[in-house]
Amino acid sequence: MADALVSVGRALSLLGTRLSAVHDEDTGGEAAAAVGQAVAGADVPRGGLGPRQLAVLALGGLESPAGLAAADVETATGLKRPNVHKMLQRLTELGHLEQVPDERPARWRRPFGVVGR
Q: What DSSP line would sit under 26-52, residue for residue?
């Protein structure tokens, strides 16, 4: 469990750094701060989910209406793009995530109205 939490912390740091570099120019850093926040204290579903899936579900950007692209999840977790995309699709099938409609590249977020699933 401790290793998973350390990995999540590293992933969030990487994501925050990347997002601040991207968003600071356009939004003054507020969007990067909002997307980079961890889901502190939220119940993360455990039934049948592995440590990598739990690490993805713990990413704070999934709480925002814009969600995260597969590339953002890839950067934050260090996983390879095909694995990330398949994992996001599987988490969507299980109801933990939803795909943001009409977004290109595709983006995922937690379903609205579902807190700490």
A: HHTTHHHHHHH---TTPPPP-TT--HH
Contacts of 65 (CB under 8 A, 6+ apart): 100, 109, 112
Residue 31 placed within a domain: yes
- Higher-confidence residue of 45 and 35: namely 45
Which of 36, 39, 33, 29 is CA-nearest to residue 15?
36
**Which structural domain, as residue segments, surrounds residue 90?**
2-109
- Domain total in the chain: 1
> Over the stretch 57-88, which tens digit does the pLDDT of each residue have?
988 888 888 899 999 999 998 888 889 999 99
Does residue 61 fall inside a structural domain? yes
